[in-house]
Specification:
single chain; 359 residues; alpha/beta; 4-stranded antiparallel sheet; 11 helices
Length: 359
């Protein structure tokens, strides 16, 4: 007869064990400057706020729109000049990407993604037991297209890449897509609105291409959890088939209403992007003067290293000033800080603190 301890050991054998993704700190203290999770420093569009105020809480007794999340999908289709059948929406781009891994990466061959990239990719691959390989970036932290021209079970990479902030020109993106006609290629464009050219223009040319974007960065709606994929209708249908087999009602009703309002306010969207980009360019100048260097960011953050002081020391000092940036202990990037672009006022506090510490 099994003892209690032995029974516990028996069921533990069937637990799926993975090393989870570790997000940036989420501090909640007075007078802090939060530059560690790449959130937008400005509020959502006025239409989003109006939609939130107009939402009738009593309607929460009803399921949200099924199965097409109609208003949000229609708004996205209009904005990106696509058909509704070419758009998939989910609870943040993480949900969308997880669905992509589950739907398309089912080969015995390894999928490919960069060794320095969004660290959630390896977590999903482990959860779904997908083999993978991680081609190394070059000495300048750039993706090498030639590394993605070998046999594989799928390709995914961010553009611009995270956490390096480096944008790959569209010509090189297409080089990778064209070299992989027999697998699904996914471009994770969480930061594309801040610089560079989206691969959206390639969708009609390549039926195996998926573009993933998010409302969490440029649309100032990280708390609403909205992400979406764009591709040909057959790919989107396959994703929806998997989604509806797990949980049809993923996005909540308030997020659907607010998300549609965000897309419709084109003017505010452009103004917000312009402010962030202007502050980013000023940050490059100010941080360079303090001895930092970084790739030429096309995102809403800088990937910075100092010529004399270790990144971890700077990170720890800034925390004592209630200023939070992101530090990675990963070999190869463990002397870099990822610094989100905040408001001009927040950035001035950062510069002042750095001047005090470094001078």
């Amino acid at each position: 007869m099994l003892q209690i301890g032995e029974v516990m050991k028996a069921w533990k054998k069937n637990i799926r064990q993975v090393i989870p993704y570790v997000p940036g700190e989420q501090p909640n203290c007075a007078d802090m400057v939060k530059l560690n999770t790449n959130e937008c420093p400005y509020p959502p569009a006025p239409g989003v706020i109006a939609a939130a105020k107009a939402f009738e809480p009593e309607t929460l007794r009803l399921y949200p729109a099924f199965p097409e999340n109609t208003n949000l999908v229609e708004a996205l289709a209009k904005f990106y000049h696509l058909k509704k059948e070419q758009i998939f929406v989910g609870v943040g781009s993480d949900d969308v990407l997880a669905n992509i891994f589950l739907t398309f990466f089912n080969s015995d061959k390894p999928i490919l993604f960069p060794n320095i990239s969004y660290s959630f990719y390896s977590v999903w691959a482990d959860v779904y037991r997908i083999p993978y390989e991680c081609p190394a970036l070059d000495e300048n932290f750039c993706i090498r297209p030639e590394d993605y021209k070998k046999e594989n079970g799928g390709v995914i990479f961010p553009n611009p890449n995270a956490p390096t902030s480096i944008y790959m020109p569209l010509m090189q993106v297409e080089e990778i897509v064209a070299a992989n006609p027999d697998v699904v290629v996914v471009i994770d464009e969480a930061y594309i609105d801040f610089g560079g050219q989206s691969a959206l223009s390639l969708i009609d040319k390549y039926d195996n291409l998926l573009i993933v974007q998010t409302f969490s960065k440029s649309r100032a709606m990280a708390g609403a959890r909205i992400g979406f994929a764009m591709g040909n209708a057959e790919l989107i249908k396959a994703m929806n088939d998997v989604k509806y087999s797990i949980n049809s009602y993923t996005l909540n009703a308030p997020s659907l209403a607010m998300g549609a309002a965000a897309v419709e306010d084109v003017e505010y969207f452009g103004e917000t992007l312009a402010k962030i980009v202007n502050t980013r360019e000023e940050a490059k100048r100010r941080l360079s003067a303090l001895g930092f260097s970084f790739p030429d960011s096309k995102t809403n953050f800088l990937f910075a290293t100092h010529k004399e002081v270790a990144a971890k020391e700077i990170f720890e000092y800034l925390k004592t000033k209630n200023i939070y940036v992101r530090y990675f202990s990963t070999p190869g990037i463990d002397n870099y800080l990822r610094i989100t672009i905040g408001t001009d006022v927040e950035m001035e506090r950062l510069y002042t603190a750095l001047e005090e510490f470094l001078n």
